[in-house]
Each structure stands twice: as C-alpha cells, then as structure tokens.
Amino acid sequence: MSYITLNTEKLAQNYDFLNHLFDRHEIEWAVVAKLLCGNETFLKSLLSVVDTDVCDSRLSNLKKIKELSPETKTVYIKPPAKRLAASIVKYADVSFNSELETIKALSEEAFRQNKLHRIVIMIEMGELREGIMADSLPDFYEEVLKFPNIEVSGIGTNLKCLNGILPDRDKLSRLVSYRRNTEERFQRKIPYISAGSSVTIPLISKGSVPEGINHFRVGESLFFGTDVFNDTFIKGMHKDVFTLTAEVIEMIEKPMVPTGKVGKNLTGESPEHNEKDRGKTSVRAIVDIGVLDIDVKQVYPLREGIEVLGASSDMMILNITDDAMDLKVGDELNFGVSYLAVLRAMNSDYVDKKVVCREKKKISAIAQI
C-alpha cells in the first residue's frame, strides 16, 4: 500500500523560519491546517510543533483540533453556513464573515452558550471570492455592533485562490485606510488586518506590506517552502516536508506506442504518442497508486532515470531509463508532491499516513527574506 510521510523535523524548521520572519516584522500569524484534512496523526505532529492559532475551513477538522488541544485558538476561515452557527461557536474561537444574517445567528448561539465569539469581517479586494464591498463597510460594521456576544477582532481579505489576483501595496494600503476610517468613525479599535497569506510573504522583503497589515494566515509556504507569488521556493525552507512512497508491482519491457483504435481513457483524454517511437521498446514500471489517490501531474520522482507517463484509477505508469535499471518488483519509490497532490492523497483512504519524528533543530538560514 502506498503512503505519504510527514517529516516533523522539517516542518518544525519551516515553522521556526516563518516565526522568526514574522517576529522581525511585528506580524502575528496563524497556521492554515486544512491540507491535513483532519488526520489525527498529522494534526498531532503539527500541534507538537506550532504555538500559534490554527485555521481551517472544515468544521469537523476544528472539532478534532479542539479535542486534541483544547487550549489552541481555532479560526474558521470561510463564511460559515448559517445552519452551523451552534457548532461554529462551539469549536471556532474566531470566524470569518461577510453576511449579517449569519453573524446574527452566531450572536444568538454565542448568547445561548455564554460565549464571546470573535469575527473577522472579510472585504472584497478584486479576487471576487468572499467579502463585502469596501464601500459598505461602515454600514455593515454599524449593524454588527448591535449584536450581543460578538466582537470584531479584525478585517481581512483573500487573494490569489480563485482568480489568481496578486496582493500589492495599493490593495494592502487601502485595507489599512478602511480600518483607520472605521475606527475613527465608531471610536472602537479593530486589532487586526488579516490580509497576508503565503502569496504575500515575498512582499515583506520588498517593503510592500504597509504598517498595519499585522496578521498572516499561512499554509502552503509552511508545508512546502513555496514562494507562491513568484512560483518558486523560499531559500532556507524545506520543500520536502511531505514525501509520497509507492511500491513497484510490475516491471516489464514493453512497446513505447500502444496498438489498436484509440478512444478516450479514464480521465476523458485521448493520449497522443510520437509515431517515431513505434517499433521501439522501453522498460515500464507500475506502482500501486493512481488517480483515485493523487493528481499524477503534481508528483515527481525523486530518483533520476524515472519518468511519469500517466495513470489509471489505481496504477501509475513509469518509464525507466538506464539510470534506474537496478529497480525490481517490491522496491519502493519516493516522489515529491505539490500542495494539490498532498490534498488528494490526504483525502484518500487508500494512502497510508506516516510520520517521521526527529529532534527539533534550528536551521542556520533562518528568515533570510
């Protein structure tokens, strides 16, 4: 059976890197844990490493976090479904909101549960995902102030996730002005502007994050060391916190071009092949993982001499060159994985989850950004 491994030491080092970076710039941050899909083994590893708030967009995952670590502050980072108000108040200390009717329901539930529920008001800044229009903020905020047991702890925005709209100094500066104007009008402090995410990290070193943007929500850069803004990696961070491992279940020399009438495959594609390869052969290996478990376009072999050719539902086909001819049936192969590959694997019951636990160490390249 294939499995995905989380390396706790490398995760801890990535966490230390980001923690030092944000500390230097007087920014608070929270870890976005939704990639782990509520897996208890991996959540325990994460909670052993971090001492920040933990965010998720699935209520069941926040419930699991509270069961494992009741003292951890939890943040629900999408507009809540109104019908889930009772559970949101129970398992999330903070929620991100953009609908007054939902906030009213949260207020009623917070009153029933004798709790103070904190919210972040999300503002639309061009990405066209969640958020109120900026010019409606004063009226929206005034209505929120009427709800008992609700406290506005911040305003925020989301960028990059849907339409790929990137953050810039202008957008972030406008958020700062929205908070300042609202505070002056209502004579109330709004502690946080939660406008930073993995994509915003590279802007810190460029001086493009204005004073006042004081809260980041980070998942991808923590787990993969990615510079999301420039589609590369951050120097000094690990990109291999996760590793996918699969076993070779067949290894045979076969023709390079299939024979017969071509229709559509499992994923609805009609694969094309180079006719110059007709009559030639190559050694092909099959490993025990497929498109039910991962996105094969988001994995890459960590050993030279291996090329991913494609996959069916539960098998991935590899081309083996001379550099890897010592492989044999029963051997395990390791693959690097992207965010989406891990997300797919985490949602598969057919991929085991394992943890490599080692002593937490500091890295010498801390916070070079």
From TrEMBL:
Its cofactor is pyridoxal 5'-phosphate. It comes from the Bacteria. GO terms for molecular function: alanine racemase activity; pyridoxal phosphate binding. SUPFAM superfamilies: PLP-binding barrel. InterPro entries: Ala_racemase, Ala_racemase_N, PLP-binding_barrel. The keyword Isomerase applies. Residues 270-279 have a biased composition (Basic and acidic residues). Residues 7-225 form the Alanine racemase N-terminal domain. Transmembrane segments: none annotated. Keywords: Isomerase, Pyridoxal phosphate. The keyword Mitochondrion does not apply. Residues 260-279 are annotated as: Disordered. GO terms for cellular component: cytosol. This is Alanine/ornithine racemase family PLP-dependent enzyme.
